[in-house]
Please model this.
Amino acid sequence: MEVITLESTPKTPSIKFDSKEGKLQIKGRSIPENSVEFYKPLLESLGRYASSPTNPTQVDIQLEYFNTASSKCILDVLRTLETIHSKGNKVVINWFYEEDDEDMREVGEDYQAIVNMTFNMQQAELD
Amino acid sequence: MDIQYFYDKMDRNNILLSYKGDITSELLTSILDIIESKMDTLQEKPQLRKKVYIVLVELLQNLYHHMDTPSMDENAEITKKAIFLIGKEENHYKVITGNYIKNDTVPVLKKKMDEINALSPDEVKEHYKRILSNGQMSDKGGGGLGMIDIARRTGKPLLYEFVPVDGSFSFFTLNVVIE
Model:
């Protein structure tokens, strides 16, 4: 069993991952200069999880801002989830965006198209 | 040194903030903080606030990563210097960045920006998606996505200038308007 719990900082989102529960939550701002380094532990843990995932896997992504350096890392997270999904496991992805944030909704749609999975697009109030 | 001259000049040009020197991670955190609370005070619309913020992140991180370039030659000092100005006019923000770059990187950077500038806003979006899904990212993350993102979010061509300094360096200026 693997658990990752990271508190948010001004430049990085909070991350909660629990492999036993099959739950992942990424929430906040993701604008670190060293995004590859920041996402590495999560990607490694998710990679191990992908070989024997819980069914279903539930993912909440609620980002306020992210930089282009993070966008590729988020895609890597989604691609790992895609491999879980492609093996016949259920993966629920909730993509949250603020009411007026058309851009974040569009970004979610772009990701959907790239990884070929359907997200639940949800309006959310960021706290 | 005539400080009043600087004051008046910044005032006339509606400059909110200017900085010259080393670009560190901590500096960027502070600058973003200052601009965010400034926009709060000015009660900017959430959409404009977000756009300004994220474009500023990309521009400043471009400077930050550029300065990571190891330089072994005797001109090492010169590559450490960067400048940026953030201003606000009636309904738009402007950000101007300037930094020294090596002459041999000028054609690559120029070509990349010219390619982006030749695209329509819809094509810029498609280009972004294509680079995101296929592009190779560097260790620093960027992989050229930053410039495309700036063009995508501002909906404007990238306004740039390269001024040759000497046999090794040019001064690169990027002028971005966000509205």
